[in-house]
């Protein structure tokens, strides 16, 4: 390492620690980072993909986009405007996003205000209070998705009923798919040190059918608790106009902008993405939102009824590749 680096070790730590707090499917954290002067590359980590549940790599791209958004937020706090390039080098296909840092000035308005939410935000898998999500918050979440080139569709009562039917089919398939179960057992349950979802973050089992994803289904612990979940959850589907790897990365940017904004309203969020992991069911969800855009994520949102543990993250040093 030279003595004239653009970023100090402390600044790199701030940036990559923020990136590590991004959500990813099964908390696999499928990223690593290379840094050269004012450029940070977000790369796919092939050893952290999920071939059974995510064969096309769509959710991997979403996770990489979310990590890139957190990099932008931390960079804004440090005073750097940022620009992005998606899959910038055909010769190096592992590079999903290239983040360019501008000259440092003062904390960048807007993005820097979200930094305090980076460590607070986590996936909440417990029941929500019956308190509705205020219209202002819904509008802000919708605007956050639009700011990143995506759309957020809030489901009405009929659409939630249809989604519940689709989720039931997906849940049934999940518990009978040996490849998916085996893959989940690698990442879900037990005590987790730096990745995956530990028992303490799974949330309780639902005592009745509910709009919640039970990652422990199929290999659950007998001593796990149960709870009654909300009857009318607030659910939004995040969509993109295009359907390719660039759109998936953009969906990840939009997702994290939405999630950090939700956290700023003290809202809890979790995912119902099992309905998007099967092509025929994803098409049914697409019809729910008008059949003109592609559903990338399904977000359950509300005020948490209980506290819950965070899933662990790897130390930033473990995600750093080359640094010049």
Describe the structure.
With 324 residues, this protein is an alpha+beta fold. It is 33% helix and 17% strand. The protein contains 8 helices and 11 strands. A hairpin with an 8-residue loop joins strand 3 and strand 4 (95-101). Helix 1 packs across helix 2 (58-78) and helix 5 packs antiparallel against helix 8. The longest helix is centred in the N-terminal third of the chain and has 21 residues, at 58-78. The chain starts with 8 loop residues before the first helix and ends with a strand. It comes from Kribbella shirazensis.
CATH first level of the largest domain: Alpha Beta
How do the strands line up in the largest sheet? 3-4-2-1-11
What structural class is derived from the secondary structure elements? alpha+beta
CATH architecture of the largest domain: 3-Layer(aba) Sandwich
Q: Count up the domains.
A: 2
Please give the alpha-carbon distance between the first and last residues: 6 Å
- The tally of beta strands, per DSSP, is 11
Q: Give the biggest beta sheet.
A: 5 strands, mixed
């Amino acid at each position: 390492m030279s003595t004239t680096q653009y970023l100090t070790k402390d600044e790199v730590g701030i940036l990559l620690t923020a990136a590590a707090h991004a959500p990813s499917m099964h908390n696999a954290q499928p990223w690593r980072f290379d840094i050269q002067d004012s450029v940070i590359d977000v790369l796919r980590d092939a050893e952290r993909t999920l071939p059974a549940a995510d064969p096309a790599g769509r959710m991997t791209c979403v996770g990489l986009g979310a990590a890139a958004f957190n990099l932008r937020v931390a960079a804004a706090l440090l005073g750097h405007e940022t620009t992005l390039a998606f899959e910038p080098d055909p010769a190096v296909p592992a590079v999903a996003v290239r983040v360019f840092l501008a000259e440092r000035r003062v904390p960048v308005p807007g993005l820097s205000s979200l930094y305090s939410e980076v460590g607070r935000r986590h996936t909440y898998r417990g029941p929500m209070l019956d308190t509705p999500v205020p219209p202002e918050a819904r509008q802000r979440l919708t605007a956050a998705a639009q700011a990143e080139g995506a759309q957020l569709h809030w489901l009405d009562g009929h659409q939630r009923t249809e989604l519940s039917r689709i989720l039931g089919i997906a849940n049934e398939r999940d518990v009978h798919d040996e490849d998916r179960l085996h893959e989940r057992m690698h990442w879900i349950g037990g005590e987790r040190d730096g990745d995956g979802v530990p028992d303490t973050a799974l949330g309780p089992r639902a005592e009745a059918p509910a709009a919640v994803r039970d990652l422990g289904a199929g290999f659950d612990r007998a001593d796990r608790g149960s709870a009654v979940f909300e009857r009318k959850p607030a659910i939004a589907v995040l969509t993109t106009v295009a359907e390719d790897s660039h759109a998936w990365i953009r969906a990840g940017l939009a997702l994290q902008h939405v999630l950090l904004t939700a956290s700023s309203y003290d809202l809890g969020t979790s995912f119902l993405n099992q309905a998007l992991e099967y092509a025929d069911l994803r098409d049914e969800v697409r019809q729910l939102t008008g059949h003109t855009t592609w559903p990338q994520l399904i977000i359950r949102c509300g005020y948490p009824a209980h506290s819950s543990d965070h899933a662990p993250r790897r130390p930033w040093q473990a995600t750093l590749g080359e640094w010049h």
